[in-house]
């Protein structure tokens, strides 16, 4: 008779891409021998990131690495690129590595005025060190002004370069908050990101 044993999967731990899988034989009329192999499985994990920075005079506005002509810029220890910060947090969250403040604290002078794209490249390296590959990045910018459309492609290319991903796997959206709240009043700009890694 045909004996079929169902494989049981033992996770070797969160964030691990490796799993112990029993190797089963299917033999007619005989007992099967069970052994184990370590095999790579392609788990998918998602992460979410959200950030808001205050708009002030005397600062350059940088979003997604694009320098955008505007009367105000975002305040922060780094270049305050709120879009890139949201992506960094989403990526770190997807692989269980905490948040951007943990890895790049604003109390550290070496991150003063640093390009956030550099932080994103370092975040990408951390994701890869965990054995994961970024599959796609979706984002949304919350801003009453300026218009984001003319800079969307530049942002997309900048992000793609930083995380070594095809630009087609990165999406950038923008919306206003219809004049509501601190963002609607023009006091700040926010961003959100969701990523998938496997
Ligand atoms: Mg930030």
In short:
Helix content is 24%, strand content 30%.
Polypeptide structure, described:
The chain is of the alpha+beta class and 198 residues long. The chain folds into two domains: 10-40, no CATH class; 45-197, 2-C-methyl-D-erythritol 2,4-cyclodiphosphate synthase (60s Ribosomal Protein L30, Chain: A). Helix content is 24%, strand content 30%. It has five helices and ten strands, in the order βββββββαααβαβαβ. Strands 7-4-10-8-9 form a five-stranded mixed beta sheet. Residues 1-15 have low confidence and may be disordered. The structure holds magnesium ion. Residues 51, 53, 76, 82, 85 line the site of magnesium ion (MG).
Task: Fill in the keyword field for this structure.
198 residues, alpha+beta, 60s Ribosomal Protein L30, Chain: A, three-stranded antiparallel beta sheet, 5 helices, 10 strands, 24% helix, globular, disordered N terminus, binds magnesium ion
Order of helices and strands: EEEEEEEHHHEHEHE
Low-confidence stretches are: 1-15
Number of domains: 2
Count of β-strands: 10
Average the pLDDT over all residues and give the rounded result. 88
Distance between the termini: 39 Å
Could you name the CATH homologous superfamily of the largest domain? 2-C-methyl-D-erythritol 2,4-cyclodiphosphate synthase
Largest sheet entry: 5 strands, mixed
CATH class of the largest domain: Alpha Beta
Give the overall silhouette.
globular
Number of helices: 5
Secondary-structure class = alpha+beta
Radius of gyration computed on alpha carbons: 22 Å
Describe the strand arrangement of the main beta sheet, using strand numbers.
7-4-10-8-9
Task: Examine the secondary-structure arrangement and name the CATH architecture of the largest domain.
Answer: 2-Layer Sandwich
CATH topology term of the largest domain: 60s Ribosomal Protein L30, Chain: A
The distinct bound ligands, ions and cofactors come out as: magnesium ion
Approximately what portion of the residues adopt beta-strand conformation? Answer: 25-35%
Helix percent reads 10-25%
